[in-house]
Write a structure and sequence with these properties.
Layout (H helix, E strand, L loop, with lengths): L4 E5 L10 H12 L6 E5 L8 H6 L2 E7 L9 E5 L1 H9 L9 H10 L6 E7 L12 H5 L1 H16 L1
Parallel strand pairs: 1-2, 1-3, 3-5
Antiparallel strand pairs: 4-5
Family: Belongs to the peptidase A31 family.
Pfam family, one: HycI
InterPro entries: Pept_HybD-like_dom_sf, Peptidase_A31
Length: 156
């Protein structure tokens, strides 16, 4: 079965809460039906090479640490144009390329997923370390539940 939804986790696994996107995607992949039309990618700290898998799926869910000015571990869903606005407001990145850049590539090549969402998780600390802070680790089940909710709604 051709994958219809790309679930992309972003972040640096050596930078404490910056790793939350990768961890959410890892756990969700372990819990998911292997026959589901999903593709899971740990996108690390982003690269232009992610433009191809983004353009290959009509649906995209990105999971990333996002500074939203909320308490650590807060989870928010930005869907469709709300995702686009969030990325345009918070386009700063320490990565090689930003998620906003990848979305622009998809727009220019007419491959922007029609259904798209950003699951943002407020970090508590971003610095050297290989473990999530307790508040961010505790947010993982909520983030997974929100992804499942999106998938259910998009499949209806």
């Amino acid at each position: 079965m051709q994958p219809t939804t790309l679930i992309l986790g972003l972040g640096n696994v050596l930078m404490t809460d910056e790793a939350v996107g990768a961890e959410v995607v890892r756990q969700l992949e372990q819990e998911s039906d292997p026959d589901a039309p999903l593709v899971f990618i740990d996108g690390g700290t982003l690269s232009f090479t992610l433009a191809l898998p983004i353009g290959d799926c009509p649906r995209l869910i990105v999971v990333d640490a996002a500074a939203m000015g909320e308490p650590p571990g807060s989870v928010r869903v930005f869907e469709g144009e709300a995702m686009d606005r969030q990325l345009s407001v918070n386009a700063k990145t320490v990565h090689e390329v930003s998620l906003s850049d990848l979305m622009d590539i998809a727009r220019l090549t007419d491959t922007l997923p029609l259904k798209r969402a950003l699951i943002g998780i407020e970090p508590g600390f971003v610095g050297w370390g290989d473990r999530l802070t307790p508040a961010v680790e505790a947010a993982i089940p909520d983030a997974i539940a929100r992804i499942r909710s999106l998938l259910d709604r998009w499949s209806a």
